[in-house]
Design goal:
By secondary structure, the protein is mainly α. The protein folds into 2 domains: 251 residues, Anaerobic Ribonucleotide-triphosphate Reductase Large Chain; 60 residues, no CATH class. It has 13 helices and 6 strands. Strands 1-2 form a two-stranded parallel sheet. The chain has a two-stranded antiparallel ribbon with strand order 3-4. It has a two-stranded parallel ribbon with strand order 5-6. Helix 3 crosses helix 6 and helix 6 runs parallel beside helix 11. The longest helix is centred in the middle third of the chain and has 28 residues. The protein starts with a helix and ends with a helix. Belongs to the ribonucleoside diphosphate reductase large chain family. This is Ribonucleotide-diphosphate reductase subunit alpha. It comes from Thermus tengchongensis. GO terms for molecular function: ATP binding; ribonucleoside-diphosphate reductase activity, thioredoxin disulfide as acceptor.
Length: 320
């Protein structure tokens, strides 16, 4: 029902996603799906939104497919993958730094403004990628499916998990996910590095509260700032952690962007272990009814995270 249009026309069936649930492509005895992925850093969305960044990335990923097709030719057991790549040239542009972008602007994730920006961002990416892919189609009339595909790439958007990439690119928030904590120790192969939310750090500095005792209190509360009485209610909302945000809001945001995404999203949810099964079931049904194609991990929380004991099924953005 929600398969990319070209696969509907060709009668291709999508049987499953990849492990991370962002790739939604068909496979059969003749073809094994291949998708070329990359992500845009939303922290800098205002800097690149009016440039050719999306178009350039679209052309780059298409060129990576050319490189794969050329180098994989004749390699045993890659014939099906090469065939799929040549025919459909599927790419998946995703994002990272969504929560960082909102926090840099002082916008709560559970707000009407976040819903608006969510739609604007993914509409912009989709339209720019479609334009670039149509440009490619006009320059490659020799492609096998040129007569039935109005653009060169069967798919354009897929939101993958980006935990490692997000850390490398300035320790921004991963993919479409909220920060799990405002202060924690990052375990790397050769070091344990303390991470302090840079946007919270700047706010504390402005308030004269960038002190060790304040950060210690945040660390002791699993990275939460809800206990800090010198923050306003809106500031506390801006810096809610993954477990403190309404999970229904995350589903609604995902549903809003799904209309612009021809593949899927790696959408994780945090469910407290004491959440009633009925509420969990209702949340999952809500995701399905909202048009989401899949969900990724269901995380739990520790008993110490008292703030997130409720599933928080109400959607504050809908009420505002």
């Amino acid at each position: 029902r929600q398969a990319p249009e070209i696969f509907k026309r060709l009668g291709k069936t999508i049987h499953a996603s990849n492990l991370c649930t962002e790739i939604m492509l068909p496979s059969d005895p003749e073809e094994s799906f291949v998708c070329c992925l990359s992500s845009l850093n939303l922290l800098h969305f205002d800097e690149w939104k009016d440039t050719d960044a999306v178009e350039t990335l679209t052309l780059f990923l298409d060129s990576v497919l050319d490189d794969f097709i050329e180098k994989a030719q004749g390699i045993p057991y890659l014939e099906r993958a090469v065939r799929f790549a040549r025919r459909y040239r599927a790419i998946g542009i995703g994002v990272l730094g969504w929560h960082s972008y909102l926090q840099s602007k002082g916008i709560p994730l559970e707000s009407a403004e976040a819903l608006f920006l969510n739609n604007l961002i993914f509409k912009t990416i989709r339209e720019r990628a479609e334009e670039a892919s149509r440009w490619l189609r006009a320059r490659h009339p020799e492609d096998e499916l040129a007569e039935v595909m109005e653009r060169r790439n069967a798919t354009l958007l897929a939101v993958a998990p980006t935990k490692s990439s997000a850390f490398i690119l300035g320790q921004v928030s991963p993919s479409i996910e909220p920060y799990t904590s405002n202060y924690y120790l990052k375990d790397l192969q050769k070091a344990r590095i303390p991470f302090k939310n840079p946007f919270l750090e700047e706010l504390l500095r402005q308030k004269g509260k960038d002190e060790e005792r304040v950060w210690r209190s945040i660390l002791e509360r699993n990275g939460s700032v809800q206990h800090l009485d010198f923050l306003t209610d809106e500031e506390k909302d801006v810096f809610k952690t993954f477990a403190e945000v309404s999970q229904k809001t995350l589903v609604n945001l995902a549903a809003g962007r799904q209309r612009h995404i021809d593949q899927g999203q790696s959408l994780n949810l945090v469910i407290h272990p004491e959440a009633p099964p009925k509420d969990v079931n209702e949340l999952y049904l809500h995701a399905w009814r909202s048009g989401l194609k899949a969900l990724y991990y269901q995380f739990s929380t520790s008993a110490a995270q008292a703030y997130s004991r409720d599933l928080l099924l109400s959607c504050r953005a809908c009420e505002s």
